[in-house]
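Subject: design request, 413 residues
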């Protein structure tokens, strides 16, 4: 009899635990979708003109502001130690609504971020880590302040060099829950934070490219990158239906590494692993042409310029890999850059051939004619007045906005 009672009690206890576990793990409605991103980069000692050195941190709080290109009923963060050579000790992480300048947060909006229920965690070397879901509903185009306390020396960080957004670095100590960070120094890169995901009904468009997607030389803190403008348009047309993730890396190439891993190498991580991805716009190839065909830097050996055929084969790899996952992929025509330090007539000829193929090939699911937006009608190899920066390569704020306006929204129907 005692055995039967104990057995009944045990079965009841197990049932209660199962019910409790089901209640704890029961998700809210909707799926996860990427709504912000910054591709991680390996450490480097020199990446001029963007950043002179990869920083490291020790017993400090980093507060970074991100504008979400989508919304949802709750969020979670992806942190990265993918290029770290040792475990990364995360002492505490908080997320709050940004109050604007100086890293201040909106009072009462602070949320503690957990990892498997704990406030602290250790991210192994060469690894990313997702947080637990955070019960924080967000609207599209909301700016968040993400505060990360690193408890010990990080070594050179897994960072994204061109943030175009002011970050704040405290003195020694944990200030993750502080409403402001008095005396903080500032930085313009992204450190350890590589993605924000939101739960809802959104589909995600990934912008995959180089500095022209990264928003290099745009006004800091202005959200003037062309994917930011695309997100604004999509969220006016259908609020909450879309997320946009920017996976541009300044200096990146399709076929070769150097400024980050080659586009071919990072495509699966930076595009196909983004939750909710349904569409990707590829704007990549300018650096392949400039570095391959332009004058070599002092002391450098002769370049091995990529041919039209090798670049075409690289793009076809992206197309095949996207289609194997049911993701639509669109070509972004390569913009003119005559006047930039690495422009050459030979590279220009290949650019023209690639753009003609992108416009006419049915291998892509469509194309966005960025070249037509920027080119000077009188000299199509140059950027027209008002669109470009002084270096004849990157965009002005107006030029990046024009690229975002050029994306036909009916591509995503």
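Subject: RE: design request

Done. Sequence follows.
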């Amino acid at each position: 009899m005692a055995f039967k009672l104990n057995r009944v009690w045990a079965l009841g206890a197990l049932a209660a635990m199962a019910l409790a576990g089901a209640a704890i793990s029961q998700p809210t409605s909707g799926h996860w979708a990427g709504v912000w991103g910054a591709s991680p980069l390996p450490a480097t000692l020199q990446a001029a003109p963007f950043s002179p050195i990869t920083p490291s941190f020790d017993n400090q709080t980093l507060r970074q502001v991100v504008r979400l290109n989508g919304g949802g009923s709750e969020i979670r963060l992806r942190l990265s130690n993918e290029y770290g050579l040792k475990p990364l000790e995360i002492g505490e992480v908080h997320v709050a609504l940004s109050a604007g300048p100086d890293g201040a947060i909106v009072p009462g909006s602070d949320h503690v971020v957990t990892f498997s229920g704990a406030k602290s965690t250790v991210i192994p070397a060469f690894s990313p880590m997702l947080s637990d879901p955070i019960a924080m509903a967000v609207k599209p185009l909301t700016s968040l302040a993400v505060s990360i306390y690193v408890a010990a020396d990080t070594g050179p960080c897994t960072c994204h060099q061109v943030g175009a957004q002011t970050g704040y670095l405290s003195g020694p100590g944990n200030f993750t829950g502080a409403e402001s960070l008095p005396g903080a120094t500032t930085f313009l890169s992204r450190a350890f934070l590589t993605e924000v995901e939101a739960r809802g009904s959104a589909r995600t468009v990934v912008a995959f490219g180089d500095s022209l997607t990264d928003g290099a030389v745009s006004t800091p803190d202005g959200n003037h990158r062309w994917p930011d403008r695309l997100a604004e348009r999509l969220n006016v047309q259908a609020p909450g239906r879309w997320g946009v993730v920017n996976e541009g890396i300044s200096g990146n190439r399709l076929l070769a590494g150097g400024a980050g891993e080659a586009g071919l190498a990072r495509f699966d991580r930076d595009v196909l692993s983004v939750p909710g991805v349904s569409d990707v716009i590829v704007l990549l190839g300018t650096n392949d042409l400039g570095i391959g065909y332009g004058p070599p830097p002092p002391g450098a050996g002769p370049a091995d310029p990529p041919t039209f055929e090798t670049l075409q084969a690289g793009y076809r790899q992206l197309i095949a890999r996207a289609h194997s996952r049911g993701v639509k992929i669109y070509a972004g025509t390569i913009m003119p850059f005559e006047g930039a330090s690495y422009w050459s007539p030979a590279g220009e000829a290949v650019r023209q051939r690639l753009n003609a193929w992108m416009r006419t090939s049915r291998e892509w699911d469509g194309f966005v004619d960025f070249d037509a937006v920027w080119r000077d009608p009188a000299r199509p190899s140059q950027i027209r007045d008002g669109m470009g920066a002084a270096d004849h390569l990157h965009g002005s704020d107006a030029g990046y906005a024009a690229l975002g306006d050029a994306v036909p929204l009916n591509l995503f129907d």
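The longest helix spans residues 2-25.
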